[in-house]
Structure formats: C-alpha cells, structure tokens
Amino acid sequence: MRWAACCAAGLLVAAWAATAAQQQPRQSEQRVAGPGETQFNLQLLRPTGGPVIPIFEGWYRHPDGRYELSFGYFNVNTEEVLEIPIGPDNFIEPSRYDGLQPTHFLPMPEGDRRHWGVFTVTVPADFGDQDVVWTLRVDGRTYSVPGRVTRPPYQLHGWIFPGDTTASPLLTFDPAGEPGRGPWGVRHGPLQAAVGRPLALKVWTTRDAPFRDDGRPINVRWFKHRGPGRVAFSRVDDRLEADAWRAGGAGGAGGAAETAATFDAPGEYVLRALAYNTIREFEFQCCWTNGYVHVNVTD
Known about the structure:
Immunoglobulin-like; 2 helices; mainly beta
C-alpha cells in the first residue's frame, strides 16, 4: 500500500501532461479511482503555469468505527503559489463534507515530492462504497479525485509507523487540553486578530509511551491553509530537540513552538501547524500531526 498513493499521484500528473501536450483549449477532466503504475516525473515540473492536482492518500479507521479520508496535493509549479477559493473551482462532494480543504497551494516542498495529508474528511462507519470527491479547477481544466474506504490498498496505519517503531507526535494548542495526533489532528479557535498586528501563536508537542525513548527531534512548520490575504509568519520552522519535547514528564504537554502571524487583509483564515518526525516518513504515510487554528481578522 505504501506506494499506492504515490502511484495515484503519478497517474494524475501523467493525465495532465497528456492533456497539456494536446494544446486543446477545451476543458478536460482527469480522475483517479485506483492505484496506477506511473511514477513521479521531474520533467513535468515547471516554474509557473501548471495546475494543482488533488491527491487521495488513503483512509484509516477510528476506534469508534468512523473513517478518516486523507487528502494532499501536488502543485507542479516550482515557484508559483496558487490561490483557489472555496466555490466552483475548489469543492468537495457530497457538499456536507465540504469545508477544510486548503485554498492556498504552495509549490513542491524542498526535499520532498508534494504536500502530504493536508486535511482529512470524516465519514461514518456505515459509509459503505460511497465516494467523497475533491475537485480543483485551474485555467479551465478540471482535476478531481475520489476518496473511498472500499479499497484495501489505500488503508493507512493512521498515526503509527509500519512495524510500530514510531508514531505521529502529539500536538495541542492548549497545554491543559486534549492533544491530537495524525492527519485529522486537532482544531483551535476562532481567534481574533487585526490587519497588520502580529498574532502570537503557540503549540505544544511531545511523544507518548512507548515512543518517549525516541531521542529524535520533533519538527513544527506553519502554513497559511485558507484565507483571502497574505500571512507572514515570524518563524516558519521550529525544531524541538528531545530535551524540549520531553518537558513536563510523561503526562506533560511537551515542548512549545511559537510564532506570530501577521495578516494583510481582513477575513476568515485557517492556519495549519504541522508537527512531524522526518520528511522521509511522509512517503510511508507517517508520521505527522495537523493542527488547525481558525482566525477572524478585522480592519
């Protein structure tokens, strides 16, 4: 299963490349329903002018029986950041699942192939053979990908690394609150902010037993996830060494990562804090945790 999502991404990219090569002005649609065999191709990258391709990573099950469908994206541009607001060019069907997908699409991350597990959609235990379809439209072309729980090759471990050797970090916005773990992560807010005035943000992260003996650092990275304007972070990346994330003992919230976000336009925003072990583990669909903070920005 480990390469299924990667292969699906390659099939989407290959479909886009074939369409672009035809130089046709008409709209086309590329849709992936199952694992393919086309691998990542660096020749498809370009500085600007390419699309963002939605990716279905796979699914995992909660102890209560519900499922999480994990989605990421591949921006084939190495320089161009794309903004695709929620609406006719960025939507999820059925509409009751529309909501937490990003609108801000960064180029391919340094040292990696794409952006993994950026958000999840929760579906009930009796979801059956239905689809949750994420669609993006860029320059008149439509790219959609279905998420489903009926394909065993797409079953993920959730937040545990294959072989149970490590796990996603715990993450919380409140040291006294319940932490989240894995792609579904944890939510926070809404907070209030004003244009041009930095908003202080802080998350706590750690590892729990039996992984507290893992002496590796925990990395934290901040993203603009959604919103109408630009967001500047005073600190984008943080690295918490073992002495920091072990702070507070076995039951503590761990080490803190801090930044300040400054907004240049009013509106509703979602920021994402990503806590992860190493970039290499993303290709094994582990081990990271998302934290989403909603912010209402006024003039």
